[in-house]
């Protein structure tokens, strides 16, 4: 079964660092883009950024550039989203999602076909 | 404020057809970038409903259909059912944002 499994909920204080993970299974992880999506409480989905595990090509939304870091360890089929200094406004649900591929061709701008279950991040003093 | 504009809510009686619009601009839907649609029930992961403007993944009923024209796209849900009650999001990419992805603000579909 193709799936993305995310790490568990986190409760952190402002200023702390955090790295959450997204592990893929059931497919060749290195050949599919992985994106990250934020949903703040009561709000819509926000596209944060995307990474290609094969060569770590990474693109960020301007809204999130410099605020988070997306990385990958393809040896363990895992993508990461990290913060160096959390703010209360980072409190949200974070989803990872796999980019769609067709016939072995995977466009960075394609849909997200498989989603992780989400990781809730709470930042409060 | 989302780059892609959706109505906050639409509603319909069971069996009816509802349509959700997604209005963009010449830097996103008006380009060659595809439009995708997702269904999201609170507390669960979003689900891909339509990819590449009009295509349905396997398992998605043909009651769901989508179209795209100019700088807008739309999703239609025919034969509305109680379990269609959810949030629906359009998504594309935007050249003015260095090619990054963008979501619409989301539309809550209520089955009356």
Walkthrough of the structure:
The complex is a heterodimer of chains A (125) and B (112). Chain A has 125 residues and is an all-beta fold. Helices cover 0% and strands 52% of the residues of chain A. Chain A has no helices and 13 strands. Chain A has strands spanning 3-6, 10-12, 18-25, 34-39, 45-52, 57-60, 69-73, 78-83, 92-99, 101-102, 105-106, 112-115, 119-123. The radius of gyration of chain B is 13 Å and the shape is globular. Chain B starts with 8 loop residues before the first strand and ends with a strand. The chains are: A mainly beta (125), B mainly beta (112). The A-B interface holds A 35, 37, 44-47, 49-50, 59-62, 95, 97, 100, 108-113, 115-118 and B 2, 33-34, 36, 38, 40, 45-48, 51-52, 57, 87, 89, 91, 93, 97-106.
Pick out its properties.
heterodimer; A: 125 residues; mainly beta; four-stranded antiparallel sheet; 13 strands; B: 112 residues; six-stranded mixed sheet; three-stranded antiparallel sheet; globular
According to DSSP, the number of beta strands of chain A is 13
Major sheet of chain B: size, sense and barrel closure?
A: 6 strands, mixed
Number of helices of chain A: 0
Most extensive interface: A-B, 25 and 27 residues
User: Mean of residue pLDDT of chain A?
Assistant: 96
Which band does the percent of strand residues of chain B land in?
Answer: 35-45%
Order of helices and strands of chain A: EEEEEEEEEEEEE
Detail the poorly predicted runs of chain B: none
How does the overall form of chain B come out from the CA principal axes? globular
Oligomeric state of this protein: heterodimer
Low-confidence stretches of chain A: none
Major sheet attributes of chain A:
7 strands, mixed
Would you tell me the structural class of the helices and strands of chain B?
mainly beta
What is the first-to-last residue Cα distance of chain A?
A: 40 Å
Please report the distance between the alpha carbons of the first and last residues of chain B.
28 Å
Q: In percent, how helical is the residue content of chain B?
A: under 10%
β content of chain A, as a range?
over 45%
